[in-house]
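Take a sample.
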Amino acid sequence: MAARPAPSPPPCRWRLRLARRVLAAGGILAYPTEGVYGLGCDPLRPKAVARLLALKGRSWKQGLILVAAGPEQLRPWVDPGDPRPWERALATWPGPVTWVLPAAAWVPPWIRGRHPTVAVRVTAHPLAAALCRAWGGPLVSTSANRHGRPPARTALQVRRSFPRDLDLILPGRTLGLGGPTEIRAADGRLLRRGAAPRAG
């Protein structure tokens, strides 16, 4: 069943301009995604990524998800060899499916972790997509929670979890999934089952 459209209006231009300034300065922001709020930063700034991981209490070895507004923003991050994994991913985007695909040779270890792969998703959330378009590329997307704690689903929950740690919180509603998105391997195998839509 597809995620419900977000009832909240599209983000104001001034808010997106502010978000872009925060990202350009190496800052960390929170924003709604399909199921939960995500924490994001510029994936090419290792200090920003290290700060984000420290806030979550998460090891760099696990790797991070990249979220984008369209496949063209993610294509340079994926190994151009076998086209079949990329075609499988395209068939599910935009939508709440993250794919773990072979990484391009240049992708840094703070994004790949200790793996030869990169986790990528073209988001169906209008605000998250607008944020990536305003930034001009993909963003780190990891659930807004401390390690071992439930992920935040509202801006208020984000503030309670990170009262003084984030540079910006973009308000908005998730698309109604009950939790994090589905994750699939390059061959299509299910690695993490996605949450079902919340009732109501």
Summary: The radius of gyration is 15 Å. Residues 10 and 24 are 22 Å apart (CA to CA). The chain has one domain: 18-184.
